Structure formats: C-alpha cells, structure tokens
Amino acid sequence: MTYRAPVPDIVFTMRHVAGLDRAVADGVYGDLSVDLAETILDEAGRFANDVIAPLNREGDRHGAVFKDGQVTTAPGWKQAYRAWAEAGWNALPGPVEYGGQGLPTLLNSACVEMWNAASMAFGIGPVLTMGAIEALTTHASDDLKSRYLDKLVSGEWTATMNLTEPQAGSDLAALRSRAEPAGDGTYRITGQKIFITYGEHDLTDNIVHLVLARLPDAPAGTRGISLFLVPKFLPDGTRNDVRCHSIEHKLGIHASPTCTMIFGDEGGAVGWLVGEENRGLACMFTMMNNARLAVGLQGVAIAERAYQQALAYARERRQGRAIGAAEGMSPIAVHPDVQRNLLTMKALTAAARAICYMTAEAIDRAHLEQDPARRKKAHERASLLTPVAKAFSTDIGMEVASLGVQVHGGMGFIEETGAAQHFRDARIAPIYEGTNGIQAIDLVTRKLPLAGGETVRGQIASMRATVARLLKEGTPAFGATAPRLRDAVESLDRATGYLLQAVSSNAQGEALAGATPYLRLFALAQGGTALAEMALAAQALAKAGDTDPAHAGRIALCRFFAENIAVGARGLEETVMGGAGFLQDANLALAG
Length: 592
Known about the structure:
Its cofactor is FAD. The protein has about 600 residues and is an alpha+beta fold. The protein has helices at about 5-20, 20-25, 35-50, 55-60, 75-85, 105-120, 120-140, 140-155, 280-315, 335-370, 370-410, 420-425, 435-445, 455-475, 480-505, 510-515, 515-545, 550-565, 570-580, 580-590, and strands at about 65, 70, 160, 180, 185-195, 205-215, 225-230, 240-245, 260-265, 270-275.
C-alpha cells in the first residue's frame, strides 16, 4: 500500500496544538508565514510519497550489502538521497551562514515524520547529520565549522554518532576508546564502536564521524570523556585510519547499514577536538537531544504508515456480515472490534504527533525567544517534554504496528503485505538514542525537579485549562471527554506530587520503580488534552462555517481517546504510587 503524507493533519496539529500560528504572530519565526509553512510541507509530502516511499519495500528485501570493507546501499537509495539533498531538504533547519535555510525545528519535525513514514531506513540517516550540524555549530572551533559545516548542511557529506562500544551500551562510563594528542592540534583515535548507523555507505563521498573517547589523563567515568571529529577522508584527500569491520543482520530497517567501526588499525585515526577536553558528553548531548525528538517522530511515522495500510486493507477485505447489514459479506472495517483497533491506532498516532510537535515548538522558543526569561522557560519545557516525546511515541509506534498486523489477520504475518515490515522496523525505536526505560528515569529524576517542580506544574496547569474549556462547552458530541480527561490530569497531578517527594527525599527505589508507568501516564494526559485542543479548534471552525468534514472526525477521535484510552490513567497512577513493593520480592519472583 502506498504511503500518502497526511499533510492536512500535520498542519492542523502544528497550528492548533503546537502553536505555529502563535509563534508566527509573536515573531519567533521571523518571516515565516503559515501559508509558506504549508507550501513547504506540501512539497515535502510529494517528495516522500513519490520518491522515498516506493523504495521502502525494495530496501527491506535487498538491504545494505557489506563486501571488502565497502557498504552498498539498496537499489535506488543513492539516487533518492542525492535528489533529496539537491532539493534542499537536508539544509532546511541548517544555519544560514553555512548554506542552511534556518527554518524552525517544528517545520523540520513535520518533514522528518514524512521522510521516516515513507521509509524509516532512509529517514534515520539524515537525522544524524542534522544532529551533528547542531553539535558542531554549538561547540566546534571556527576552523572546524568552516571546513565541515557547509558540506554537512548541504548534504554533500553525512555524519554519524559514535558512542556505543561492546562493553559500554547505555553506561558510557565504561567507554574505552582512546585519544592521544599528536602535538600538532590533532589527536590519534583508537578503539571500536558498534551499532553505528550509516557508519559506512555509498551515498556520499565523505562521512564525518563524531566520536567519544578518553584522553590519557582523563578522569574516570563520564567526566573524562571528550568528543572528536574524525572524517573518513582527511582534508588533503587521503583516507583516514577508520574502517567498517562489518554490518549487523537485524530484525528491521534492513536498508540502513548498522556498522561496527574500527579506529586506529595503523596507529590512530586523525581527529580534532570538539569543544573542551573532558566535556565531550555535554557536546554529544546536543546531538542526542536532537536525535531523541527525531526518533520519537520515527515512532509517529511508523504508526502513521501502519495505520494507513491497515485502514486500506480493512476497507477492502470482506468477511462476515456486519450487524444490521444486508445479505453478503461486509468490509471488516465495519466490524466493531476492527473499528476499535483502527481507532486506537489513529488516536495513539495523533496524540504522539501532538506531543512531538509541542516539543519541537518549545525547542524553537528555547533558541529563538528574545527575552531571556521566556527562553529559559521554553528550554525547561522542552527538556520536560523530550523524554515523553521519545518514549511514548516509539512505544505507540510498536503498539500501532502490532495492531496493524492484527487487522490484516493471517496476511499480516506474511511478508507479502508489508504489515510485518512496519512491525519489524518499529522495534528499534524504543531502544536506540537512549532506551525508553532511561527516558523514563530521566523524566522522573532530572526533569520533574526542574525549576523546583514549577515546569511540570505549569504543564499540568495548561492541561487543566484545556479541560476547563471542554467542561464549559458541554457539547453532546464530546460525550464524556471532559470528565475522563479531567480524571487523567488529576491522576497525573497526584502521581507527580508523589514522585517529586520521592526524588527530594532520595527514595530512589520508589522513584525508579514508578518511572515507566509515570511517563505513560504523563503522555495519556498530555496527549488527551492535545487532542482536545484539536477538537475544540475543529468545533470552533465548524461553527464559523468551515465545512471541512475532518472537523467532525477530530472531535470523534478525541472522544474515543478520552473514553477508551485515557481511562487507563487511574491504574497507572496506582502503579506509580503503590507499585514499588515488587522491589522487595523481585529476586524471589525471578528466581523461579
């Protein structure tokens, strides 16, 4: 089934939840207008539909091929990438002084969703390059910027992020790669990195690796890590001492080469320090935070793709007779259980998209607001929302892709339909760029206490304001939306108070045990109230005479989410506040 970029839904979410109109009116986005943003997204949607999406199945079947140290991407991949870069899509969010267009993270986030929905294996490569651009723009020397940024911004070169080692996954304190000063301002890098996305490929002539390594006199742990720029080809055109040893055979995203990289076979790869010595993790986090939102958008993307395919199949597949239908078999899309699956897929996707776009808008304001106090507040809000955007969106990407297989029935388990590919591709997203368990721990232990808890309290107050507007409306079409979302927000508030107290009193076990259910609870309340904002906007537009039939659907979808999904908030609250007892008996339970 061919993907069609849902540009109207994307634009509606950007305008009525993420705050595109407000940001434009406030002057945050400079000369960008809503009309121009829509035009850009229409063009991006066409490229995703017509150029990238048709390659997705072939990329999955063919995969990336490793031979004699070289990686060859799937047929059509190189041509699609070059057309994509030449059209300026890589440069969309890049700094203007290095050839970028300087457009907002919010706009680029919508494009990232479309690239990844068209093909997740294609879309992940540019994500890393864009993250590297941000890291270099923020931390690199002027010399490195002038040498590398223009080619990275244009997409002529790509970039990678080299963190993970065989003995050091999420625990970067165990990192062993070394960097020896060469006495001429450069360093010699030695070590092995694994799981390096697009670490080797044939799409571009050069690849710029950002590598974490330790200096000889570095302190132990994460305080002793530095960041280095290590190009595949040196400025004089000679090959650097870095190579791809192998690529992984994976569950999904087969067309994206996941490489084991070896630095220093012949004495050490030449590298340049990015930022300060022993401050590499702070530099890399600039790249990782960018990537975490992008991976969240991958979750939205694969969910949207799986939903579109399941809906099309359900409308075509005839089996059984619906209640009240005439003679003959009915499309399975009219059967209540299938309808519930489809609505769950659509509602979760819409909620996750809204959270991701809200995060992107907060990131924009954190960079672009002129007032320092507003900029700081936006930064704190973006920090709070980022782990939710990453973890919830990738979790629902898996759930929605699984439901897509279910809607297809036995045919979903067969590779022929393509539903299985979405399920396989989605599985990596909750793992890379910081596992979702780590995102939950980050949310609870580091983000809830921001500004003494005022950041999260402010976010909950905003959710309450949305519920108050719903209660005031009292429209029959909303059903029990208002009371259900009110209950979800109040559950979130109580659980937040409990965890803030646990963190402040150093009750580490209680905080960590409740972290994952708390993140889900936060997302249900935030996602539900975001859908309510869309429903309220749709109702207002319909009352004003806008005849778009999608408005009634947005109200119905919000009601479904509130009455069928958000009701899980109370159980999550109880798990957060009373579920830590398992810690005492976990070893006993696991021993059997």
